[in-house]
């Protein structure tokens, strides 16, 4: 019988506190709150599909990585679902956020506010120029929201779409959101088979 992991009863965590946790524990630290994500299979599949799409024209010296810890500051160590980072940091964890050229979060049923607001604030303050949020929870179809730093440094929404998304920044990327919707709907329909 294995002993259950008991986490300290803390309200305000720092990256120093994380050093006392098991190294194989997947966690995030957002505004001093420890988050132990437990994504569903669809969430992970969408991350893989998006990483493959990002790889198509990825600039030399950069790679898309899934579920990867990023070093921001003492109270924030997010674990984006997909991030495009410089190859020089791929062997580090956490990797410095300033080596990321694109950060993508995929909303889970329990992460909507965190991904759209709390993490957006953290990434904006860290200077991330390209932050996207993919939302598979919208009934009409998977959506993509593109955030860009505004004049004050806080993010502004510049694109919100459920169509095929094409962009040239930070490099040429195509994300087929209708195909992701079809994939999501396939898994939703399969729920009736269980």
Description:
It is a single chain. With 194 residues, the chain is α+β, with helices and mostly antiparallel strands. The protein has a single domain (39-193), classed as tt1808, chain A, CATH 3.90.1570. The protein has four helices and twelve strands; from the N terminus they run αββαβββββαβββββα. It has helices at 15-18, 41-55, 112-125, 177-190, and strands at 28-30, 33-35, 62-66, 70-71, 82-86, 95-96, 100-106, 131-135, 143-149, 155-161, 164-167, 173-176. The protein has a six-stranded mixed beta sheet with strand order 3-5-7-8-9-10. Strands 1-2 form a two-stranded antiparallel ribbon. The radius of gyration is 17 Å and the shape is globular. The relative contact order is 0.13. GO terms for molecular function: endonuclease activity. It comes from Actinoplanes sandaracinus. Pfam families: Uma2. InterPro entries: Nuclease_put_TT1808, Restrct_endonuc-II-like, Uma2. Keywords: Endonuclease, Hydrolase, Nuclease.
**Overall radius of gyration:** 17 Å
Which homologous superfamily in CATH is the superfamily?
Answer: tt1808, chain A
End-to-end C-alpha gap: 31 Å
- The coarse overall form would be globular
Percent range of helical residues:
10-25%
Strand order within the widest beta sheet: 3-5-7-8-9-10
Q: What value does the average pLDDT take? A: 88
CATH architecture: Alpha-Beta Complex
> Which fold name is given in CATH as the topology?
tt1808, chain A
Counting helices, strands and paired strands, the structural category is: alpha+beta
Question: In DSSP terms, counting alpha (H) and pi (I) runs of 4 or more, how many helices?
Answer: 4
What is the CATH class designation?
A: Alpha Beta
Series of H and E elements: HEEHEEEEEHEEEEEH
Major sheet attributes = 6 strands, mixed
Beta-strand content estimate: 25-35%
User: How many beta-strand elements?
Assistant: 12
Number of domains: 1
Which ranges are low-confidence, i.e. pLDDT below 50, for 5 or more consecutive residues?
Answer: none
Q: What is the subunit organization of this protein? A: single chain
Pfam family, one: Uma2
GO molecular function, one term: endonuclease activity
Domain Putative restriction endonuclease: 17-158
InterPro entries: Nuclease_put_TT1808 (IPR012296), Restrct_endonuc-II-like (IPR011335), Uma2 (IPR008538)
């Amino acid at each position: 019988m294995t002993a259950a992991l008991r986490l300290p009863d803390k309200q305000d965590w720092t990256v120093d506190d994380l050093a006392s946790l098991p190294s194989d524990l997947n966690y995030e630290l957002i505004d001093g709150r420890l988050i132990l994500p437990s994504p569903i299979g669809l969430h992970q599949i969408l991350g893989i599909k998006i990483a493959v799409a990002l790889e198509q024209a990825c600039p030399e010296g950069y790679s898309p990585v899934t579920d990867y810890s990023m070093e921001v500051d003492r109270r924030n160590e997010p674990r984006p679902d997909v991030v495009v980072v410089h190859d020089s940091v791929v062997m580090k964890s956490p990797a410095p956020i300033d080596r990321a050229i694109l950060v993508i979060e995929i909303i889970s049923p329990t992460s909507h506010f965190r991904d759209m607001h709390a993490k957006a604030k953290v990434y904006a303050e860290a200077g991330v120029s390209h932050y996207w949020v993919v939302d598979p929870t919208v009934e009409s179809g998977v959506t993509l929201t593109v955030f860009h730093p505004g004049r004050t440094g806080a993010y502004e929404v510049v694109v919100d779409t459920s169509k095929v998304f094409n962009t040239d920044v930070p490099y040429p990327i195509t994300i087929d959101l209708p195909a992701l919707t079809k994939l999501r709907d396939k898994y939703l329909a399969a729920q009736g088979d269980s």
